[in-house]
């Protein structure tokens, strides 16, 4: 495992954004300025457009590129892993305590480093398409027991392919964006017509999502051993779910209005290079997957995950779930490869969610559907408050952070507050 590297920029011991991390995002320095790409370091954001204009990206792949002068990361993402590595090495060197180029240039620092607390983060890329997988064995089993009973909770196809559905890219929002409680039809009671109104079973889903770098041409597919080169990095994701709307509409096609009202992602994209020290063995898969899903380089990542709920008027958020990305049965390489096996063309900036990441223990269940067992159990919060599903005014906060030797590689937070339905 890599050891800590020091930066001339102060990095608090508990910061998610060490010199080993350097996640990418897009931000506005002030309300009146244009958005531009940046990198998180400690409690600051490094403006990559300033670094580029100063001629400090002087490697062969980036020297003539205007990718950091764009209002999104799509151009940089499309350049592929050699360019990503070149950029990471340059940024790491510039921010190092031993490198004078930025450290000793007061004017350049003033123009290039902004306090994170003062900037506005926006979506890091243009997300053209969004797919959500169903890749956690424990979540799949729990849902099967809740809705179909314990006899056959997992359908036969699930162990042979990464199941997924196509989501709605237009309603993906950045962390901190409020979510309005959705309305929709609900399952009829007896012989009455379907009910209609605000969802009363509003839920969170603890997920991670990959953002695609280079895509593939229509009619071609990505080889499993090349899949990682098509993954720019990972973000936290909360795929908000209206369980009562979903239960009625998802017969027979699957999720629609119960999901498409909002999906929140964290603002910082953590690269696979930063996560490499936390790679771990992929789970054993039985039966063995098809040949196109059997890669020699597939791996999981040991990323501790956490969900907290802060009710309206409460200062303290209550942790309701602690899980880990290593609980995913299908790896991110397998998910991406399967997505393209029919010739579907992925494009830079496409978002591929993992599905809810639940662990084997009740405290690691990644949704209130599981934690409350579809409303049959109360989930205890601080100050004698409890929940079965999310109430108006509740803020849900996802976080993820890996602990290295003297440093952290984290994702920051992915949060959202529920506002009342619009009648």
CATH homology-level superfamily of the largest domain: Fumarylacetoacetase-like, C-terminal domain
Number of domains: 2
Q: Strand portion, in percent?
A: 25-35%
Helicity, as a percent range: 10-25%
CATH class call of the largest domain = Alpha Beta
- The number of helical segments is 10
CATH topology of the largest domain: Fumarylacetoacetate hydrolase, domain 2
* CA(first)-CA(last) distance: 54 Å
Specify the overall morphology. Answer: globular
Main sheet makeup? 8 strands, mixed
Report on the architecture of this protein.
The chain is of the alpha+beta class and 423 residues long. It has 2 domains: 99 residues, Fumarylacetoacetase, N-terminal domain (SH3 type barrels, Roll); 290 residues, Fumarylacetoacetate hydrolase, domain 2, CATH 3.90.850.10. It has 10 helices and 26 strands. Strands 6, 7, 8, 13, 14, 16, 17 and 22 form an 8-stranded mixed β-sheet that branches. Strands 4-3-2-1-5 form a 5-stranded antiparallel β-sheet. The longest helix is centred in the N-terminal third of the chain and has 15 residues. It is globular.
Short structural description:
The protein has 2 domains: 24-122, Roll (SH3 type barrels), CATH 2.30.30; 130-419, Fumarylacetoacetase-like, C-terminal domain (Fumarylacetoacetate hydrolase, domain 2).
In terms of topology, how is this protein built?
Layout: E1 24-28, E2 36-41, E3 44-47, H1 48-53, H2 74-78, H3 81-95, H4 100-103, H5 106-112, E4 113-115, E5 120-122, E6 130-133, H6 137-148, E7 164-166, E8 172-174, E9 179-180, E10 183-186, E11 195-198, E12 202-203, E13 206-212, E14 231-238, E15 241-242, H7 243-249, E16 263-265, E17 270-271, H8 272-275, E18 279-280, E19 300-301, E20 304-310, E21 318-324, H9 332-340, E22 351-353, H10 368-371, E23 379-380, E24 386-387, E25 395-403, E26 408-419
Parallel strand pairs: 6-22, 8-16, 9-26
Antiparallel strand pairs: 1-2, 1-5, 2-3, 3-4, 6-7, 10-11, 12-15, 13-14, 13-22, 14-16, 14-17, 18-19, 20-21, 20-25, 23-24, 25-26
């Amino acid at each position: 495992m890599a050891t800590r590297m020091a930066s001339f920029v102060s990095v608090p011991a508990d910061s998610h954004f060490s010199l080993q991390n350097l996640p990418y995002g897009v931000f506005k320095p002030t309300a009146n300025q244009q958005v531009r790409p940046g990198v998180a370091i400690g409690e600051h954001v490094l403006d990559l457009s300033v670094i580029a204009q100063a001629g400090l990206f002087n490697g062969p792949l980036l020297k003539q590129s205007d990718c950091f002068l764009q209002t999104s990361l799509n151009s940089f993402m499309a350049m592929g892993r050699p360019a990503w590595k070149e950029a990471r090495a340059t940024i790491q060197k510039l921010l190092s305590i031993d490198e004078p180029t930025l450290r000793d240039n007061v004017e350049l620092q003033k123009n290039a480093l902004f306090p994170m607390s003062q900037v506005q983060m926006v979506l890091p890329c243009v997300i053209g398409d969004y797919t959500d997988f169903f890749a956690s064995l424990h979540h799949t089993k729990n849902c099967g027991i809740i809705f179909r009973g314990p006899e056959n909770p997992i359908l036969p196809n699930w162990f042979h392919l990464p199941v997924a559905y196509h989501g709605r890219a237009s309603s993906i929002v950045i962390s901190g964006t409020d979510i309005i409680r959705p309305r929709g039809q609900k399952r009829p009671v007896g012989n009455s017509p379907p009910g209609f109104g605000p969802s009363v079973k509003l839920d969170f889903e603890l997920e991670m999502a990959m953002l695609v770098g280079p895509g593939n041409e229509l009619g071609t597919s990505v080889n499993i051993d090349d899949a990682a080169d098509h993954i720019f990095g990972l973000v936290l994701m909360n795929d908000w779910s209206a369980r009562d709307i979903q239960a009625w509409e998802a017969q027979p096609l699957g999720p629609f209005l119960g999901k498409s009202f909002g999906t929140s992602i964290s603002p910082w994209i953590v690269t696979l290079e930063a996560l490499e020290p936390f790679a771990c063995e992929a789970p054993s898969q039985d039966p063995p997957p098809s040949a196109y899903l059997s890669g020699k380089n597939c791996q999981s990542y040991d990323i501790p995950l956490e969900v907290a709920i802060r009710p309206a008027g409460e200062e303290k958020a209550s942790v309701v779930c602690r899980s880990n990305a290593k609980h995913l049965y299908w790896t991110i390489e397998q998910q991406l490869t399967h997505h393209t096996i029919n010739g579907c063309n992925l494009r830079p900036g496409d978002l591929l969610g993992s599905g809810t990441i639940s662990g084997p223990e009740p405290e690691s269940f990644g949704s209130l559907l599981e934690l409350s067992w579809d409303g049959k159990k109360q989930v205890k919060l601080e100050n004698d408050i409890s929940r079965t599903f999310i109430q108006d005014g509740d803020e849900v906060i996802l976080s993820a952070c890996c602990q290295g030797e003297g440093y952290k590689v984290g994702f920051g937070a992915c949060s959202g507050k529920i506002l009342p339905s619009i009648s």
